[in-house]
């Protein structure tokens, strides 16, 4: 490898390291600003919903520009349809659904656009937790005689 190529590679490594340091600083600042904007949006949502939606819009634009993910605790309060803030009782309705076959889930309905988002509640998806199962000795002996598996508790 010639000296020119070696110097060029070292220069590129230095540039990429500086660029990465700048990106890290920019992402840290952006994540702090995003958190501040979301906190301000939630504080203002009860009095001025338009201002709160504007804060959410700025926070989303900042996150996309800086390539920083919005934290999950804030993302749950943004409508996936209209991208506006969800305030319980004011701009959203939530219901808890219990299904014996499918498990439980929480449905969140945006009152501005009508979009429905469903969140599965962990641990109840396949087994039907929440249903009562009898585990008496007589039931187990009867099921054992009929060839079926005994009930799981």
Structural class: alpha+beta
The side-by-side strand order for the widest beta sheet comes to 1-2-3
Distance N to C terminus: 70 Å
Relative helix content: 40-55%
Largest sheet: 3 strands, antiparallel
Give the total of beta strands: 3
Report the average pLDDT across residues: 80
What is the CA-atom radius of gyration, in angstroms?
26 Å
Sum up the overall morphology in one term: elongated
- Topology as H/E string? HHHEEEH
Regions with little confidence, pLDDT below 50 for 5+ residues: 128-150
Number of helices: 4
Residue fraction in strands: 5-15%
Explain this structure to me?
With 153 residues, the protein is an alpha+beta fold. Helix content is 48%, strand content 14%. The chain has 4 helices and 3 strands; from the N terminus they run αααβββα. The chain has helices at residues 3-44, 49-66, 72-75, 137-146; strands spanning 92-99, 103-110, 116-120. Strands 1-2-3 form a 3-stranded antiparallel sheet, with no helix packed on it. A hairpin with a 3-residue loop joins β1 (92-99) and β2. α1 packs antiparallel against α2 (49-66). The model is unreliable at 128-150 (pLDDT under 50).
Short summary:
By secondary structure, the chain is α+β, with helices and mostly antiparallel strands. Helix content is 48%, strand content 14%. The chain has a three-stranded antiparallel β-sheet, with no helix packed on it.
Could you name the key traits of this structure?
single chain, 153 residues, alpha+beta, 48% helix, elongated
């Amino acid at each position: 490898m010639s000296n020119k190529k070696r110097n060029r590679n070292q220069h590129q490594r230095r540039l990429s390291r500086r660029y990465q340091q700048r990106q890290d600083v920019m992402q840290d600042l952006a994540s702090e600003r995003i958190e501040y904007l979301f906190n301000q949006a939630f504080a203002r949502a009860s009095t001025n919903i338009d201002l709160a939606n504007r804060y959410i819009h700025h926070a989303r634009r900042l996150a996309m520009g800086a390539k920083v993910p919005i934290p999950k605790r804030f993302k749950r309060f943004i409508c996936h349809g209209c991208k506006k803030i969800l305030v319980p009782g004011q701009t959203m309705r939530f219901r808890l659904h219990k299904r014996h076959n499918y498990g439980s889930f929480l449905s969140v309905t945006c009152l501005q656009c009508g979009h429905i988002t469903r969140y599965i509640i962990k641990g109840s998806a396949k087994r039907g937790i929440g249903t009562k199962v009898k585990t008496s000795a007589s039931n187990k002996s009867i099921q054992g005689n009929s060839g079926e598996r005994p009930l799981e508790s």
